[in-house]
Specification:
Layout lengths: L1 H10 L1 H9 L3 H9 L8 H13 L3 E6 L7 H20 L5 E4 L10 H17 L3 E4 L7 H12 L5 E6 L5 H8 L6 E4 L15 H16 L4 E4 L3 H9 L8 E6 L4 H9 L4 E7 L3 H11 L3 H10 L2
Parallel strand pairs: 1-2, 1-8, 2-3, 3-4, 4-5, 5-6, 6-7, 7-8
The structure holds flavin-adenine dinucleotide.
Flavin-adenine dinucleotide (FAD) binds next to β4, β7 and α12.
């Protein structure tokens, strides 16, 4: 219930614009968000990326945004991603850029999202950078997968995220292994109807393991993206992290101890960094999936 309330608050435009205009609240909430985001600017994202690379992590970097409705805003987001790729490339950060297709046009026209994705992948290719496509609400799954499949034939440097909680993912993952791109398996961050998705449960963890096993056994590039310690322990016991094409990936600010442990054991360990002014929705996602974070957020807000 707390999670649902937080998601409703996150999507309420009145609350969002009130907070953005409030000179008192905005900096306080930004302070709380900084537990999970690197900052509002690309520069802050790049500084954090270099710091993490220096510590031996791989990185993904996302310019935060989703559900962009205006054509101009989608074009601007695409331009920001192009600049990000350019700056990463010239700084020899041959890593991963993550994005939501709804940030670059999916809601307006799938052709726009496809064209922009190709433009980004082309630029990324010249710098040996990977573009990782996030997975969004189930209403967008078909469009996202279709765009990915069309693009991935020509650009092996594009990867795709699969949500273990969707029942359909068991079939999707077989098809996706026909394409060269890395597959990132997550549990799923969106509230979905129970006839198409599982809630957090042993059943979901078993499904997660099943998907991981299929991709590992096919020798396909894989990112295991979870902070679930018992689940990671099961994955470790099966030695899946020791495969060279497999990596573990976690969100910045969430269970850094677990990711450090994986890195210290010699496993490729990727940290998912974000920056941008649209951090509010990202913060709400992180609070909603783990409402205990609300206490941390409040403590961050009142601490000097
Ligand atoms: P859970 O069962 O949710 O949590 C397990 C444990 O992890 C918790 O008990 C807690 O200890 C810790 N934990 C989990 N979340 C938090 C948190 N917010 N704060 C503090 N502790 C926490 N979802 C999508 O739907 N689409 C995507 O494209 C997508 N991309 C992702 C990329 C990466 C690299 C990662 C790591 C996650 C991504 N997610 C995405 C989010 C994902 O679906 C889950 O919502 C999120 O990872 C939490 O699930 P979990 O696997 O950690 O397991």
């Amino acid at each position: 219930q707390a999670a649902q309330a937080l998601k409703a608050i996150a999507r309420n435009e009145h609350i969002k614009s009130y907070l953005q205009q409030s000179e008192e609240l905005y900096p306080l909430i930004l302070q709380a968000a900084k537990r999970f985001i690197t900052g509002e600017s690309k520069q802050e994202g790049l500084v954090a990326a270099k710091e993490m690379l220096g510590k031996g992590y791989a990185i993904s970097l996302e310019y935060i945004g989703e559900n962009t409705k205006g054509e101009k805003e989608c074009r601007e987001a695409k331009e920001e991603f192009l600049q990000l790729i350019e700056e990463m490339g010239t700084a020899s950060i041959h890593q991963t850029v993550s994005l939501d297709l709804s940030h670059i046009g999916l809601l307006i026209d799938t052709e726009i999202a496809y064209d922009y994705l190709i433009e980004l992948a082309e630029k990324a290719k010249s710098y040996n950078i990977t573009i990782m496509v996030s997975m969004e609400e189930s209403s967008k799954t078909d469009d996202i997968l279709n765009i990915y499949k069309k693009a991935a034939r020509h650009y092996p440097n594009i990867g795709i995220t699969v949500q273990a909680h969707l029942y359909r993912s068991l079939e999707d993952i077989h098809e996706l292994m026909d394409y060269p791109g890395r597959i990132r398996i997550v549990k799923g961050a969106y509230q979905e109807p129970c006839d198409i998705a599982m809630p957090r449960s042993k059943e979901l963890n078993d499904r997660y393991l099943q998907l991981v096993e299929q991709v590992v056994k096919a020798n396909h590039p894989l990112s295991i993206a979870t902070h679930d310690e018992p689940l990671i322990r099961q994955i470790e016991q099966r030695h899946y992290l020791a495969y060279p094409q497999v990596e573990i990936e976690m969100l910045y600010g969430i269970r850094p101890d677990l990711l450090k442990h994986a890195k210290d054991n010699g496993y490729t360990s990727r940290i998912y960094l974000t920056y941008g002014q649209e951090w509010y929705l990202y913060l709400c996602h992180r609070l909603a999936e783990y409402p205990e974070n609300l206490y941390l957020a409040l403590a961050d807000m009142i601490q000097p």
